[in-house]
Amino acid sequence: MSQPLSDRTVALVKATVPALEAHGLEIVRVMYDHMFQNPMIRDLFNQSHHGDAGSQPRALTAAILAYASNIDNLGALAPAVERIAQKHVGLQILPEHYPYVAEALLGAIKQVLGDAATDEILAAWGEAYWFLANILIAREDHIYRDLAAAEGGWNGWRSFAIEDVRPESATITSFLLRPTDGRPVVRHKPGQYLTFWLEIPGHAPLKRNYSISNAPNGENYRISVKREPHGLASNWLHDHGAAGTLLKVAPPAGEFFLADHPERPVVLLSGGVGLTPMLAMLETIVAKHPGVPVHYAHGTLDGSTHAMGHHVRALAEGRSNVRVTTFYQQPRSDDVPGRDFDRAGLIDEAWIRGETPIDDADYFVCGPRPMLRNLITALSMSGLPADRIHYEFFGPADELLAA
User: Fold this and answer.
1) Which residues participate in catalysis according to the annotation?
2) Distance CA 126, CA 379 (A)
3) What is the CATH number of domain 158-253?
């Protein structure tokens, strides 16, 4: 258990907030430059989120600023701490990695702030860093132990083979994965993701997260991956991920998931490839919770990009508790209303208010950044309590959290 932060440390860290607001992004970029000189540390991270246009430096800047601003009210950061711990478990970050981050962070603060970063300021930030680090290390240890002890569970990287490949749309393909050791797999919580260590010839190892798109069954996992125009990992999977291809996989992680026993109606809202965790939730509700009302609304560009629509409608068919609404942003001439889609346009606040039980339901949202920003803001402004708004964002949730 970490010792409480001293009053002096709290005061000094809060006093650095203006400097962080002005120079935080530069500090974080310098920090990553220092850390990534060590290949062992560099390879822990998803490099697609870094660089000049990367979102991870902005996300970490926002997180550090939030920590400094709330250091006298750390309870407000509990959801963010859980999210970070789950990400760390997916990436297989261990206690021995934390000193490298501490050294890089304090060195970056000193380099960027110069004489303003006095020994007293650096000591306060060192104490604050290790206070939070010890909280994360303890939580991550608990998650690792639970995963190792669970039926079918494991720690580290486990070998899986692609068993089946199924094109779902012009851009999305599903891959069914089964462990090569023939043993069971841990039953994930519907909505969680797997982390993959991909070794692509000519490139440093890649880490990528992909949501599990099927309900837990103890035998296999399905991921449904969108081919991104410049996505090294997604293009490799689409082009080379044939049956029999071996992949290194970490156990399921993530704090975005359906409750074991849903107590309220559930509304699932997704856009594009954001359907992947929703499919796991919908399949689970159909199989295990027939008394729970669920309304699944999905938006996509048109029929060419609409993945797994027939599967979703088959799940809903004949079930009074399941309702499905499909939105096409720009329907093609051969996209038939009532057959292929239900509404033209985007999922918006007016539709949510008019068609979903906003006073009673839990909302799960996953999709592109603009969609999440708009819908989460709309739900919050509608007076929906924060504990009934759940979201997943495929990448660091930087300005989304601010919104």
Assistant:
1) 98, 140
2) 38
3) 2.40.30.10
Q: What is the pLDDT of residues 201-213, one digit of tens each?
A: 999 889 999 999 9
Check if the beta carbon of residue 214 is closer than 8 Å to that of residue 177: no
Sorted by where each begins, the domain ranges of the chain are: 7-149, 158-253, 266-402
Structure tokens at 85: 């711990």
> Strand pairing partners for 234?
none
Tell me 44's DSSP state: T
CA dihedral 358, 360, 365, 370 (to 10 degrees): 20
* pLDDT, tens digit (0-9, with 9 covering 90-100), for 75-107: 888 888 999 999 999 999 999 999 999 999 999
pTM score: 0.92
Report yes or no: 278 and 270 within 8 Å, Cβ to Cβ.
Answer: yes
- pLDDT digits over 24-54, tens only? 999 999 999 999 999 888 888 766 554 444 5
Q: Which superfamily is assigned to 7-149 in CATH? A: Globins (1.10.490.10)
State how far the Cα of 324 lies from the Cα of 310, in Å rounded to an integer.
Answer: 11
DSSP H helices, 266-348, are 275-288, 309-316
**21 membership: H or E segment, kind and range:** helix 17-35
Distance separating alpha carbons of residues 131 and 82, to the nearest angstrom: 15
Class of domain 266-402: alpha beta
Q: Please tell me the distance from the alpha carbon of residue 277 to that of residue 257, in angstroms, as a whole number.
A: 8
**Residue type at 164?**
D
Residue with tokens 């849903």: 262
